[in-house]
Design goal:
The protein has 637 residues and is α+β, with helices and mostly antiparallel strands. α1 (8-19) packs across α4, α2 runs parallel beside α5 and α13 (473-491) runs antiparallel to α17.
Amino acid sequence: MAVRQLGEQVINQIAAGEVIERPASVIKELVENAVDAGASQVDIVTAAGGKTLMRVADDGAGMRQDDLKLAIRRHCTSKISDDDLFDIRTLGFRGEALPSIGSVARLAIQTRHKDEDHAWAIAVEGGREQPPVPAARTRGTQVEVRDLFFATPARLKFLKSDRAEAAAITEIVKRIALAYPEIGFSLSGADRQPQSWPAARGSDPHLARISQILGKDFVDNAMEIDAAREGVRLSGFAGLPTHHRGNAQHQFFFVNGRPVKDKLLLSGLRGAYADVLARDRHPVVVLFIDLDPAQVDVNVHPAKADVRFRDAQLVRGLLVGAIKHALVQAGHRSSTSNAAVALDALRGTSGGSYSGGSYSGGPQPSAPAGQAGQGGYGGSYGQAAAAARWSPDAFRPLETAGAPAAGFAEAPQPGLHPQNGFADFAAPSADARAHDVPVETEKTRLPLGAARAQVHETYIIAQTGDGVVIVDQHAAHERLVYERLKEALAKKEVARQILLIPEIVELPEEDAARLAERAEDLEQVGLSLEAFGPGAIAVRETPAILGDMDIRGLVQNLADELAEWDTADGLKEKLDHVAATMACHGSVRAGRRMRPEEMDALLRDMEATPLSGQCNHGRPTWVELKLTDIEKLFGRK
């Protein structure tokens, strides 16, 4: 077959296949044009998820008649000066959007320039242009797109439901609105509930717009980011590790005001949160990168969603370093939403409301087992019966009431080396509670307060000046041990303890072989092991900071994780991963009773340790309930 030149309409349809993927792609191009035109208000209307109608109106500069004729031609643009593709300072620049849309849909444009006496209108239907005609309109431009893909009906089959397409449009508008808080946006139509984001004012318009779109909850649980290096500036907000999501839809990146989804930036974000988030959780961030346009290529993707940095490692290093610095500065800070979730759960258990000294509408507390029909808690809540059954022994520590009850006996627990601040930790606790110790007013003024009790041998209850703090002892100590291990790794001073009798751990041959191959790496974190036959490993030394521990369980977990390691990972990442696993095995376990001084020591260490607001897996280590919220639960306020 002979080579031939394609017709203009076919060329435009091919271009539309690259630029116009779905209705959201149309909205993106049209809203970006409105922003480039200097609009202060952009109004978007859709129907059927954008399949039958999309209308974008703005109050920007508008176009003259001659400009309008050229705007619907391919590669005609006002946004490139001196034909320099490496000095792009606008969102659009290719001049492909309008002709591409006109080739597959019914396109109508009305526009009025400030110097024109009236507006002009032009229409393009399936690639066929109509001449411009006078129209009535105030300053600005309105672009209306109807019957998307009517000229290429096969592409309609690849669109999703109206609801899904409408949601994609909302997502696009939100991303652009985050980048330009000084512009007001509205989104309405028969397929959605109206939404509006007024132009943000005040000293920090970006923060105001973020609050409009992501909610005050994110603002309350975000860390401000502001860093610069070699002409690249990073600013914005990153959520606390305990304020996370199940997917990456709440990660917003902007490069010179352009919303992007770049793999380099996503990779850097994962690296920054690697120590504080579980693998299946995702942080919430709104980050802006500003740099010389010559240092970034925005012309590598038809939809301009990806960018390419001239110095990619500089940008990634800045991103990782700035977020890690902010995480350290946040210290033991934890998400405020944790307390809200706890309070909601407490309210949900009652199922009713408090009114005038009695509960209504919810289930009442039931009588103890075996005492049904003896008055229970009906009417006066069985006060007389309750008084007759009351015994002070029921509120004493278990040890003072005699031998521990079945199931609550204290089993031997792993101890800790004195260097981690918990000397003689493995010794049996004489009393698991701290309520007999007088409250020290000075300690209640500290962020995590004074330890008052331990419940279920897992949670520490501390009293602050205006509330109560609940600490997960295992999660908290896991973070403390991990940070100390990392510090020792950095100084190459990991203290070891030699086992009197080497621990022999039997494993599948392939797992034993992997561990033997990594013996040199593991030795850097204080774990000395060697092959002991074809299917076994002999452990001779362990990190002293971990004290007595489940060596067999640790080695088996390390073998499993080694099988999943990416061989491209650097040594530091691998060693940090090993340290995290060791910290989990060497920290205070749930079920370990603690003395009052041990609980206070743990709280003070948490206050002094960076990132102690969450464990190595991203779970919160503590939750604070304000006294005012607790009083509301009991109807006191």
